[in-house]
Amino acid sequence: MISQQAKDAFDFIVTGALKNALCASSEGQCEVSVIADAKEAKEKKVVLLTVSSYTFRVMTMLYFTLNRETKAHFAAINRSEVEAMNESDYLDVICECGNIFCGALNRELGNHFPHLGMSTPNVLDRECVDYLTELDAGYTQHFKISINENFTMHASVCVCEFADIDFKVDMTQTEESNGELELF
Fold it and tell me: Which of 109, 101, 135, 134 is nearest to 10 (CA)?
């Protein structure tokens, strides 16, 4: 069982991590809201990353479609021109944003749970998300991310527990920067 306090903590951590990972600049405006169903997400692909321990597995999904708006947003994050990037470059930036998002979740959970491991990014078809119910997860939440009122993405978090989960985070903490995107 996952306590309500833990569910609230997951939501708080995920919201902050999404804002930090997906805003192209410090002047950017990013709003994250909970949505009822992943069917609202119309993107065609997801980047899947996991954080695992002995007592749970958290799967994070960042949805995307490589259309004009997505390319413009991720080129800005990469501080590049849209024309200067190819599809592989975009996937690298999107996957790295997924790493930043999941890494922030991993760091915060590490304050409460020992022995965590984080996966590398996997790009999957969006239809895979429709099978999350098959995992019999204790908690699944979907998010809408609105950036500068002109770009929207979606994300999901799915927590499968192997023991009772209860933890609390300080929800009065201010957002902190985890650095800038740097590709090698």
Answer: 109
Query: If we measure between CA atoms, which residue out of 87, 85, 88, 122 comes closest to residue 102?
Result: 122
CA-to-CA distance for 56 and 6, rounded, in angstroms? 12
Three-state DSSP at 3 gives coil
Q: List the helix and strand counts (H, then E) for the chain.
A: 3, 7
**Tens-digit pLDDT string for the chain (184 aa):** 999 999 999 999 999 999 999 986 666 788 999 999 888 889 999 999 999 999 999 999 999 999 999 999 999 999 999 999 999 999 999 999 999 999 999 999 999 999 999 999 999 999 998 888 889 899 999 999 999 888 999 999 999 999 999 999 988 865 544 444 444 4
Helix (H) or strand (E) holding 158: strand 151-161
